[in-house]
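User: I've been trying to design a sequence by hand for this structure and keep getting stuck. Would you show me what you'd pick, starting by listing the structure so we're on the same page?

Assistant: Good idea, let's start from the same input. This is the structure you sent:
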Protein backbone atom coordinates (compact mmCIF):
# COMPACT_ATOMS: atom_id res chain seq x y z
CA UNK A 1 0.00 0.00 0.00
CA UNK A 2 1.25 3.48 -0.89
CA UNK A 3 1.32 5.85 2.04
CA UNK A 4 0.40 9.54 1.61
CA UNK A 5 4.04 10.58 1.95
CA UNK A 6 5.09 8.19 -0.82
CA UNK A 7 2.30 9.59 -3.05
CA UNK A 8 3.54 13.09 -2.35
CA UNK A 9 7.14 12.12 -3.21
CA UNK A 10 6.06 10.37 -6.41
CA UNK A 11 3.96 13.39 -7.40
CA UNK A 12 6.84 15.75 -6.65
CA UNK A 13 9.29 13.63 -8.66
CA UNK A 14 6.80 13.50 -11.53
CA UNK A 15 6.48 17.29 -11.55
CA UNK A 16 10.25 17.72 -11.46
CA UNK A 17 10.67 15.19 -14.27
CA UNK A 18 7.97 16.90 -16.35
CA UNK A 19 9.55 20.35 -16.09
CA UNK A 20 13.09 19.09 -16.61
CA UNK A 21 12.20 17.47 -19.95
CA UNK A 22 11.79 20.84 -21.65
CA UNK A 23 15.08 22.15 -22.97
CA UNK A 24 15.22 25.68 -24.21
CA UNK A 25 17.25 26.17 -27.34
CA UNK A 26 19.95 28.79 -27.00
CA UNK A 27 19.44 31.77 -29.24
CA UNK A 28 23.11 32.61 -29.36
CA UNK A 29 25.02 29.49 -30.32
CA UNK A 30 28.64 29.69 -31.35
CA UNK A 31 27.60 28.82 -34.89
CA UNK A 32 25.30 31.86 -34.95
CA UNK A 33 28.06 34.10 -33.60
CA UNK A 34 30.56 32.82 -36.18
CA UNK A 35 28.01 33.39 -38.95
CA UNK A 36 27.34 36.94 -37.76
CA UNK A 37 31.08 37.71 -37.63
CA UNK A 38 31.69 36.28 -41.10
CA UNK A 39 28.70 38.17 -42.44
CA UNK A 40 29.91 41.46 -40.95
CA UNK A 41 33.43 40.97 -42.29
CA UNK A 42 32.07 40.33 -45.79
CA UNK A 43 29.98 43.51 -45.64
CA UNK A 44 32.75 45.73 -44.26
CA UNK A 45 34.81 47.97 -46.50
CA UNK A 46 38.56 48.11 -46.06
CA UNK A 47 38.20 51.52 -44.36
CA UNK A 48 35.70 50.05 -41.87
CA UNK A 49 38.02 47.14 -41.10
CA UNK A 50 40.89 49.54 -40.49
CA UNK A 51 38.54 51.72 -38.44
CA UNK A 52 37.78 48.81 -36.12
CA UNK A 53 41.46 48.81 -35.17
CA UNK A 54 41.48 52.52 -34.30
CA UNK A 55 41.28 53.42 -30.64
CA UNK A 56 40.62 56.91 -29.37
CA UNK A 57 42.01 57.84 -25.98
CA UNK A 58 40.61 60.56 -23.80
CA UNK A 59 39.96 63.16 -26.50
CA UNK A 60 36.19 63.26 -26.23
CA UNK A 61 35.58 65.04 -22.97
CA UNK A 62 32.42 67.06 -23.41
CA UNK A 63 28.83 66.74 -24.47
CA UNK A 64 27.56 67.03 -27.10
CA UNK A 65 30.19 65.03 -28.89
CA UNK A 66 32.27 67.06 -31.31
CA UNK A 67 31.05 66.63 -34.93
CA UNK A 68 34.49 65.35 -35.99
CA UNK A 69 34.34 62.44 -33.53
CA UNK A 70 30.63 61.92 -34.24
CA UNK A 71 31.49 61.37 -37.92
CA UNK A 72 34.40 59.04 -37.10
CA UNK A 73 32.03 56.81 -35.14
CA UNK A 74 29.21 57.10 -37.69
CA UNK A 75 31.50 56.22 -40.61
CA UNK A 76 32.93 53.17 -38.81
CA UNK A 77 36.39 54.70 -38.56
CA UNK A 78 36.63 54.19 -34.82
CA UNK A 79 36.45 50.81 -33.09
CA UNK A 80 37.40 51.52 -29.49
CA UNK A 81 37.45 54.28 -26.90
CA UNK A 82 39.76 54.31 -23.91
CA UNK A 83 39.27 56.41 -20.76
CA UNK A 84 36.04 58.17 -21.67
CA UNK A 85 34.97 60.11 -18.59
CA UNK A 86 31.21 59.97 -18.27
CA UNK A 87 28.57 57.27 -18.69
CA UNK A 88 26.45 59.74 -20.67
CA UNK A 89 29.28 60.26 -23.14
CA UNK A 90 29.89 56.52 -23.50
CA UNK A 91 26.17 55.88 -24.00
CA UNK A 92 25.98 58.58 -26.67
CA UNK A 93 29.02 57.19 -28.50
CA UNK A 94 27.50 53.69 -28.37
CA UNK A 95 24.17 55.06 -29.63
CA UNK A 96 25.92 56.64 -32.61
CA UNK A 97 27.87 53.43 -33.34
CA UNK A 98 24.82 51.18 -33.13
CA UNK A 99 22.07 53.37 -34.57
CA UNK A 100 23.85 55.65 -37.02
CA UNK A 101 26.72 53.60 -38.44
CA UNK A 102 26.15 51.44 -41.49
CA UNK A 103 26.67 48.07 -39.76
CA UNK A 104 25.76 48.94 -36.16
CA UNK A 105 28.93 47.54 -34.61
CA UNK A 106 29.26 48.73 -30.99
CA UNK A 107 32.44 50.38 -29.76
CA UNK A 108 34.85 48.58 -27.46
CA UNK A 109 35.08 50.74 -24.34
CA UNK A 110 37.89 50.39 -21.81
CA UNK A 111 39.72 52.05 -18.94
CA UNK A 112 43.46 52.14 -18.45
CA UNK A 113 43.69 52.22 -14.68
CA UNK A 114 46.99 50.51 -13.98
CA UNK A 115 48.09 53.68 -12.19
CA UNK A 116 44.82 54.01 -10.32
CA UNK A 117 42.11 56.45 -11.21
CA UNK A 118 43.31 59.99 -10.53
CA UNK A 119 45.76 59.09 -7.78
CA UNK A 120 49.19 60.50 -7.01
CA UNK A 121 50.68 57.17 -5.99
CA UNK A 122 53.08 55.08 -8.08
CA UNK A 123 51.97 51.98 -9.96
CA UNK A 124 51.62 48.77 -7.97
CA UNK A 125 54.99 47.41 -9.00
CA UNK A 126 56.59 50.65 -7.78
CA UNK A 127 54.85 50.34 -4.43
CA UNK A 128 55.93 46.70 -4.20
CA UNK A 129 59.53 47.79 -4.75
CA UNK A 130 59.38 49.68 -1.45
CA UNK A 131 59.10 46.34 0.39
CA UNK A 132 56.87 48.17 2.85
CA UNK A 133 53.46 46.45 3.19
CA UNK A 134 52.24 49.09 5.65
CA UNK A 135 52.92 51.86 3.15
CA UNK A 136 51.15 49.92 0.39
CA UNK A 137 48.17 49.31 2.67
CA UNK A 138 48.00 53.02 3.56
CA UNK A 139 48.07 54.12 -0.10
CA UNK A 140 45.30 51.62 -0.89
CA UNK A 141 43.15 53.06 1.92
CA UNK A 142 43.67 56.59 0.64
CA UNK A 143 42.96 55.60 -2.97
CA UNK A 144 39.77 53.75 -2.00
Amino acid sequence: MITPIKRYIILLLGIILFFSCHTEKSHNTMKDVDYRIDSLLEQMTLDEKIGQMNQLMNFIDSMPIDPYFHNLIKEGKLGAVLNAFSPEMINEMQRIAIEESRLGIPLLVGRDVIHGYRTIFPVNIGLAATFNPDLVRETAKIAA
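That's my pick for every position. To get oriented when you compare it with your attempt: The radius of gyration is 26 Å. The first strand starts at residue 55 and ends at 57.
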